[in-house]
Amino acid sequence: MGNIAEELTESLGSKEVFTIGSISINEAVVVTWIIMAVILILCIVLTKNLKIKDVGKRQAFLEFGYQWALDFFDGLVGKNGRPFIPYLITVLIYLGFANIIGLFGFAPPTKDLNVTAGLAIASIIVVEYAGIKHRGFKGWMKSFTEPVAIITPLNILEIFIRPLSLCMRLFGNMLGGYIILKLVEAVAPVIIPLPLNFYFDIFDGLLQAYVFAFLTSLYISEAVE
Question: 145 or 12: whose pLDDT is higher?
C-alpha cells in the first residue's frame, strides 16, 4: 500500500516536462497544446471544400453538430446572449477533448487546479462582460442592488463564488475519477480498469464538460436579462 500511495501522490502533481529559460512547462500545458493541435487539424479537415449543394457525409456531420450546439445554447442564453455562443461552444469542445484524453494515455489537464481555475475565471469574465455590454456600466452596477439593496453584499460575493464553484466542481470530479482509476489499476491492472476507463473518461468526462458549459450559459443568461 505504501508504494501505491507514493505512486498516486506523484501522479497527482502536474509533472514538469521541460523548461524554456526560467519558465517551467508542466504536463497540463503540454497536453493542452496537443488538444489545441488536434482541434486545429480537425477544423482544417472538416471545413475543407465545403459546398452549398450535394454536401458529403463529413460536411453533413459538421453542420449537424454545429446546429445542435447553436440551438442548444441559443435556447439557454436567449437573443441577447447569442454573441457569446462561440465562446460556449469552444469551451465545450475543449473540455470534451480534455476530459476524454485519458483514453489515449495522457493525464487529463482538468485534474490540474490551475487549468480549471483559469477556465472558471475566463468564464466569469465573459459573464460580467456580457452584463456590462447589455446593461451598460451603470445598469450593471445597479444590478447588484436587485431585487433589494440589502442583499448587495451577497450579489457582489456571488462574483467570487461562481468561479470557485465552476472550478472546484470540474476539478473535484476529474481528480476523483483519476484517483479511483489509479487505485483500481494498482489492484487489478488488466480487467477491471477498462470499463471504468470508459465510464470516467467518456461518460463522466463529457458530462462534466456539458455541466461546465451549461452553468456558464445560465450565468450569461442571467447577466443579459
Answer: 145
CB within 8 A of 217, min separation 6: which ones?
73, 76, 77, 81, 88
Identify which has the larger pLDDT, 55 or 153.
Answer: 153
Sequence-separated (6 or more) residues with CB below 8 Å from residue 224: 77, 78, 80, 81, 130, 131, 133, 134, 135
Instruction: Report which residue type is found at 52.
Output: I
Full DSSP string of 63-79: HHHHHHHHHHHHHHHTG
Contact 85, 70 (CB under 8 A): yes
Q: pLDDT tens across 50-72, in order?
A: 888 777 888 888 888 889 989 99
Alpha carbons 33 and 18: distance in angstroms, whole number:
14
CA distances from 89 to 8, 37, 63, 179 (A): 33, 17, 14, 29
Q: What is the pLDDT of residues 161-196, one digit of tens each?
A: 888 988 988 888 887 777 777 777 676 665 655 666
